[in-house]
Amino acid sequence: MAAMQRLLKRTVAITNPHPRACFSSLRSSASAADNVASPPLIPPFDHQPHPYNGPSADEVFAKRKKFLGPSLFHYYQKPLNIVEGKMQYLYDESGRRYLDAFAGIVTVSCGHCHPDVLNAITEQNKLLQHATTIYLHHAIADFAEALASKMPGNLKVVYFVNSGSEANELAMMMARLYTGNLGMISLRNAYHGGSSATIGLTALNTWKYPIPEGEIHHVMNPDPYRGVFGADANSYAKDVQDHIDYGTTGNVAGFIAETIQGVGGAVELAPGYLKLVYDIVRKACGVCIADEVQTGFGRTGNHYWGFETQGVIPDIVTMAKGIGNGLPLGAVVTTPEIASVMTRKIQFNTFGGNPVCSAGGLAVLRVLDKEKRQAHCADVGSHLLERLRLLKERHDIIGNVRGRGLMVGIELVTDRKEKTPAKAETAVLFEKLRELGILVGKGGLHGNVFRIKPPMCFTKDDADFLVDALDYAISRL
Ligand SMILES: Cc1ncc(COP(=O)(O)O)c(C=O)c1O
């Protein structure tokens, strides 16, 4: 009933009917199209964007092409010039408001320009921006203490870095130093970074350059939707044992996995997988690393950390993105014993844990607690998933809806049985959603998965708007 009221509130007369594209082999029932005759409207929001007097999208794009690396890519045929953000919304140069369902690639956790985070950064900026850890400063120590208090078991020692790639590089180095072994195991379809060391852990050919990677074993992905063993964790775990038995000395340095694959398209690991694999890896003298760069800080709803959804405690946890709500910040948290391997030489990071990022990071932790964002993600996320699953019943193009909390994937296929990736249709719908005022992410090896990972202040009205817009757009494919 409440959902229906929300739907009625937002539905208006047709002002902008979209022409039909010709992907008619996919079934979308006539009644589905009838239900969504009008483009849904973005929920109301009380914020007036500042007047924008800066360069136009075309000017920025021209300058970027001239002076920035040619490998930079952008979303949308006509790239968006985003000039302001407030909580879960973004504004372009014309002042048009968009629902941000991707959070700057799963990075804005509390909300764009959240006042508490802004205040903490501003106050610290006024006093001291930088001095490095060669001097004492309370901000880094306070933040490390607060972060450690969120961790289970003996995960009590923090190293701060500036990004997720750096965090995973440091974790891999610790694993190798601690065990004296070189071999690392990661999952196919994983993304752990684009630096020259982490590119080896990443297992999506679209992101890999042909450079030396060291000893890395990419094991079968325990993907319940596409994996050959479905959700049978035991069979996937056996593949890990096989790699160790056949491809290594019998010992490894470590195993790393995201607990829900992000760039890979919000893929959840088969239930029980991590428990089995952690046992296998530890028997081979390796350490277990959880990459929480996307899944951490309550985003998955039922748990604060993604690894908790699998009932395991890792030896090393890496984090970035949401930890700083947009600040360049990453962290590696581990046990005192593993952390101590770094004392064998000098380990230093110029910006890691600088006062401004530390003050901001501490504010993020406090906001997430104060605003009960984990419970909010569980509540809004289950509403979103429920509505998306109903939408799947009406549109054959939706092959799979998955995820937890506000970490959701919608995989589009042209044939449900064959699971053929609907690449072209995804690209069309992606543009349509933007036209309707919604920015989502894309992922998966074939780019056929919509990634819905908004700032954690995303509401049920926002979720309804997103689902209605998707319904509207698919009905007109
Ligand atoms: C799971 C995961 N790990 C690591 C990284 C690398 O983080 P960064 O881009 O901050 O280096 C990413 C980035 O998308 C990620 O999604």
What would you note in describing this structure?
The protein is 35% helix and 16% strand. It has helices spanning 2-10, 30-35, 57-67, 103-106, 115-127, 138-148, 164-179, 233-247, 273-283, 336-339, 355-370, 373-394, 423-436, 460-475, and strands at 82-86, 89-92, 97-100, 157-161, 184-187, 216-219, 254-258, 260-261, 267-268, 287-291, 316-319, 330-334, 398-404, 407-415, 420-421, 438-439, 441-443, 449-452. Helix 1 packs across helix 14 (460-475), helix 6 packs parallel to helix 11 (355-370) and helix 13 packs across helix 14. The two termini are 29 Å apart. It binds pyridoxal-5'-phosphate. It is an enzyme of class 2 (transferase). Belongs to the class-III pyridoxal-phosphate-dependent aminotransferase family.
- Average residue pLDDT: 93
CA radius of gyration: 23 Å
Low-confidence runs of at least 5 consecutive residues: 1-25, 29-33
Range of strand content: 15-25%
Helix/strand structural class: alpha/beta
Shape: globular
Pfam families: Aminotran_3 (PF00202)
Protein name: alanine--glyoxylate transaminase
Subcellular location: Mitochondrion
Subunit structure: Homotetramer.
